[in-house]
Every structure is written in structure tokens, then in C-alpha cells.
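From the methods appendix. Each design record in this collection lists the discretized structure first, followed by the designed amino acid sequence. Records were kept in a plain field format so they could be parsed without special tools. The example shown here is representative of the layout used throughout.

RECORD:
C-ALPHA CELLS (414 positions):
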């Protein structure tokens, strides 16, 4: 049932006798990769709010982040840009701004005072030349471990705190005929699990220094070799149907008890919620095993193609404004499995895992960035995904060889 205020707004809008031009002015094509159940449900909250304010939403879903990002860039370079496209804030988005492909939404950001309402790390990553080039709408964490509580109980297993504990638990599960890890065998998913092992074995300071400096000595260190040895030890714990599996299918395996654990970003929690499961009940959440506490962040955002010069069109402006409204932030993030980008949004109605994230992030020493789209240049991000996937899927590459390939590819790409 629409609230009275929304009905009144709709009647007022229609009674003014909207001209085609005005309708067109509020029309935005939105290109994105949110095709899973929970992603669609979450995005629907933004669409609903945009349309309630008179916007016309043209939906262009493209499955797979890499495919959608390539399509958005190709459309811009081909002179037929999608007005609004999903990205993640960070270095790769700034590369597009460098090429003059993006409009800025500085007017909205100023009017809505985003500088004060967003965390400093996000403000910095969402701006280019002092202007906002994207509307950051959430904070996802990548170093989560989801698990089926009944499967662990049945096997007499405690939630593992270290990777050695995890390996011992996985061996016990495998001996009992249970698939220890539900994994989607795609490079970005394998990389997420690798980075959780890296963080867990080497610690948050090593993670931060390694990915901010890409230093050869760190890449060649004994610590990195231990990371590759630990990652290699996980290979026997996934099922043979893992290659090519989508992330949400792996989440479903854990929800149904077909696998015990999934190491994934908390968009997996969105799927658990969409399946009618309260996170922390039959499916538990904890940070992946680690020697200290940290949060590997990725921030979803929508960017705006430069349609006519660097200023956003009325439809792009309306979209940016709607995305950061408090009630949209709550409705969207509760379904997406993330936490609001805005600091001033009450999050006490969020689930227990989200509360852990919010509490953790109050300590700035826990703030780490994803190597997916946020923390490193495109070429380095690609080198990381490719070499980790190559190592994970190689039957005979030693941890030393995997580490050497990782170091060489990053050194070449940086
Ligand atoms: C990530 C994105 C998440 C989720 C995931 C899987 O890049 O930040 O929101 O969509 O891809 O599709």
C-alpha cells in the first residue's frame, strides 16, 4: 500500500500533464550485474523510490560483474552510453574519469552534504578532481565465512578461528562425506577466498602494506609462501562441480546443508535472507579464520556516463539523490546483505552479522580494501585474479611456483 505522500506526489505529477520531454528528462537506463534473487530484490527498492519521484527506469541487467563492466565501457566508447551503470568505487572507476567518460554528481553531493555523511575512505574513493563521480550505496565485506550450523553440530565441529583449525575441521567433514567448502569456481570467487587466507595467515597490516605497495620483497617473502601453502591445502575440500558455479549456487549449497562452509562477500547473506533464513540461525556468519580482526571492504556504486558534458542530466541527478536517501539506504541494504554507506542511517534493525560489521568498522585499523575493484589498478586486479585462479586450478603447480607467478604478474602489471 503506497503511503499517502507518494500517492499525492504521483497524482500531482500526472495532473501537471507531463510532456514527453519531461518524461524523457526523467528517464534513465540502468546497466548492472545484479541478477540473483536478493540482488534483484535490493535493486528493486532503488527503482521503486526513483519511479515514485517521477523517474522512468530502463533496466539493462548483464550477468557477471566483468561482463557488465565491459559492456558499460564499450557502450560509452561506442557513443551509446547507459546513463547509469553499476561499478564499484575505487581506482578502476577513476581510470574511466581520467578518460572523460563520467559525469559528476557534485551538485547532489553538495546539496545532500555527502562529505559529512559518508566515511572518509569512501568520500576519497568516490571523488575525482574534487567532484563525486559515483553514488556509493553500501559497504560489503569480503572476508566472511558462512556455515551451516546443523552440519557443524552433526560433525562435532566448532566454528574455526584459525586456518589450521579450519583444515582439521574440513578433513573431519570430508571423512564424514560432507563437502567442506561450497565454492563457485570463477577467478573472482577464488580470489576472494585467497584474500581471506592471506589476511588470516599474514594479518591485516601485511595485507594493507602488500596491496598498497605491491612491494616485491613482500611478494617474495616467507609469509607469502605460507599463504600459498595454506591456500593449496584447501584444494581437496571443494566438490568436482565447482568450476564455473555461480556464487549464489554455492550459497544455496550451504543453506541446504550440501556444503558446510562458503568463503564469500556478505552479498551471500542477501541470498540467505531471500531464502527466508535469519542470518545467525541455521546459517551462521563469522569472519574467515584470522590472526587479527579486519574488514575487506568493497563499495557498490552507480556511476553516470557523460551524456552531454561533465554535468549530470536531471535523471542522473535524481538517481544519485534517491540512492543515498536514508529510507532507501535501509530498504536496499537490508535486502542486499550489506550495510549502509551513510554513517547517519539507523542500522539497529539490521541482522546480527551486519551489527558485527558495523561494530568492527568503528575501529579504523580494521579497514582494508578489496583488490576486486577498489584498492588496486585494473591491470593489477586482473593479474591477481588470473594468477590465483591459475594456481587454484593447477593440479601440479607448487605453492612456490604459484607465489612466483603471482609476484611476477603483479610486478609486470603495476
Ligand atoms: C560484487 C558486488 C556485490 C555482488 C557480487 C556478486 O562485485 O560488489 O554487490 O553483486 O559482485 O555479484
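DESIGN:
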Amino acid at each position: 500500500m503506497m503511503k499517502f505522500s507518494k500517492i499525492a506526489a504521483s497524482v500531482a505529477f500526472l495532473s501537471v500533464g507531463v510532456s514527453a520531454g519531461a518524461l524523457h528528462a526523467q528517464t534513465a537506463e540502468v546497466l548492472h550485474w545484479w541478477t540473483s534473487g536478493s540482488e534483484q530484490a535490493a535493486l528493486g527498492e532503488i527503482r521503486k523510490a526513483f519511479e515514485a519521484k517521477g523517474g522512468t527506469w530502463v533496466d539493462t541487467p548483464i550477468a557477471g560483474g566483468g561482463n557488465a563492466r565491459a559492456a558499460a565501457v564499450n557502450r560509452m566508447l561506442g557513443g551509446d552510453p547507459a546513463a547509469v551503470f553499476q561499478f564499484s568505487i575505487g581506482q578502476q572507476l577513476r581510470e574511466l574519469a581520467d578518460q572523460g567518460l563520467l559525469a559528476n554528481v557534485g551538485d547532489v553531493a553538495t546539496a545532500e552534504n555527502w562529505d559529512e555523511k559518508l566515511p572518509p575512505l569512501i568520500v576519497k574513493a568516490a571523488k575525482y578532481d574534487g567532484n563525486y563521480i559515483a553514488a556509493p550505496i553500501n559497504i560489503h565485506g569480503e572476508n566472511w565465512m558462512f556455515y551451516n550450523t546443523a552440519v557443524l553440530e552433526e560433525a562435532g565441529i566448532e566454528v574455526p578461528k584459525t586456518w589450521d583449525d579450519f583444515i582439521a575441521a574440513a578433513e573431519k567433514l570430508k571423512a564424514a562425506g560432507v563437502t567442506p567448502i561450497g565454492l563457485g569456481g570463477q577467478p573472482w570467487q577464488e580470489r576472494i577466498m585467497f584474500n581471506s587466507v592471506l589476511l588470516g595467515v599474514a594479518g591485516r597490516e601485511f595485507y594493507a602494506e602488500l596491496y598498497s605497495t605491491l612491494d616485491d620483497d613482500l611478494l617474495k617473502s616467507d609469509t607469502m609462501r605460507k599463504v600459498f601453502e595454506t591456500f593449496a591445502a584447501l584444494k581437496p575440500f571443494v566438490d568436482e562441480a565447482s568450476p564455473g558455479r555461480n556464487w549464489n549456487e554455492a550459497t544455496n549449497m550451504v543453506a541446504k546443508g550440501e556444503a558446510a562452509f562458503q568463503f564469500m562477500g556478505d552479498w551471500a547473506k542477501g541470498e540467505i535472507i531471500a531464502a527466508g533464513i535469519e542470518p545467525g540461525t541455521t546459517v551462521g556468519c563469522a569472519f574467515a579464520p584470522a590472526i587479527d580482526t579486519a574488514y575487506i571492504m568493497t563499495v557498490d556504486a552507480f556511476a553516470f556516463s557523460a551524456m552531454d558534458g561533465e554535468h549530470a542530466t536531471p535523471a542522473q541527478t535524481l538517481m544519485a539523490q534517491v540512492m543515498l536517501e536514508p529510507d532507501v539506504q535501509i530498504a536496499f541494504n537490508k535486502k542486499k546483505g550489506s550495510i549502509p554507506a551513510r554513517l547517519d542511517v539507523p542500522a539497529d534493525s539490521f541482522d546480527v552479522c551486519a551489527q558485527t560489521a558495523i561494530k568492527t568498522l568503528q575501529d579504523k585499523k580494521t579497514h582494508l580494501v578489496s583488490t576486486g575493484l577498489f584498492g588496486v589498478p585494473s591491470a593489477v586486479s586482473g593479474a591477481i585474479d588470473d594468477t590465483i585462479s591459475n594456481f587454484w586450478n593447477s593440479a601440479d603447480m607448487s605453492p612456490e611456483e604459484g607465489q612466483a607467478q603471482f609476484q611476477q604478474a603483479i610486478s609486470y602489471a603495476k
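APPENDIX NOTE: The mean pLDDT is 93.
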